Amino acid sequence: MLLHANPKSIEIQARFFRGFSDPSRLMILEFLHSGPRTVSEIVTATGLSQSNVSNHLGCLRDCGLVSAEQQGRFVHYALSDERVGQLLELADSLLADVAKGVYECTRYSVKETAND
Amino acid sequence: MLLHANPKSIEIQARFFRGFSDPSRLMILEFLHSGPRTVSEIVTATGLSQSNVSNHLGCLRDCGLVSAEQQGRFVHYALSDERVGQLLELADSLLADVAKGVYECTRYSVKETAND
DNA sequence: TCATCGTATCAGCATATGCTGATATTTTAT
DNA sequence: ATAAAATATCAGCATATGCTGATACGATGA
Fold this sequence. Notes:
Two copies of one chain form a homodimer.
Chain A: H1 7-18, H2 23-32, E1 37-38, H3 39-46, H4 50-62, E2 66-71, E3 74-79, H5 82-104
Antiparallel strand pairs in A: 1-3, 2-3
Helix pairs in contact in A: 3-4
Chain A binds a DNA duplex (30 and 30 nucleotides) through residues 18, 22, 24, 38-40, 48-58, 70, 72-75, 108-111.
């Protein structure tokens, strides 16, 4: 690689962003942006299946985007760092201006959106 | 959806982040972070194939992350907004602290890393 | 006009990704 | 100890994603 001293960091960074790049995970992150929540609260709020949420939480946890704390039977999840929320907000801000374009961005993404 | 008023915005946001979530696109974005470049400069710098770069640029352009300007035979690409660079920097900053974890994040990601 | 350079597009393939459903695990109450 | 609740894990599947190679397009110079 001619670009970076360590191409590794690029892969890490890509994997990091992948945490934000799925609608389900993003829903979870946005939800946690409003405060710590248990798994079942997340399941209810998002409408996703329990196993699905649990898998995504595992992914987000491994990536360091969220932290978990067991309390009794429940596990409370929260954004692990203030900057995770900042990233969400910055993206929101940018998105407000480029949203129109993103609709068109189907090259490496969804082929069509049926219900709209 | 019980979470957001418009689930649509979540999908858009996820698609937006997908722009950052691939090593090749990230290389391109990081490269453009240092200033506007032509396609061939990007091809040389990244070592990616021309068609591959062009496809990714099309994706990034549709998503509003980069802008293009034709000058003669060349097309000059640049980050479309200051905040795109800010996002990269914020991610870098966060990554410095959670990088160890991201290595472990193979749940919805790479199964193994052969060459290391 | 013709040849060439720079860029874009597209089909086809291999792989990665996310979801479901079943099951395991952990914790607490009876 | 047993049952039930909350969460985690995993195999299997359908689809999305990124790459390659061939080709088309657009601009410039001979």
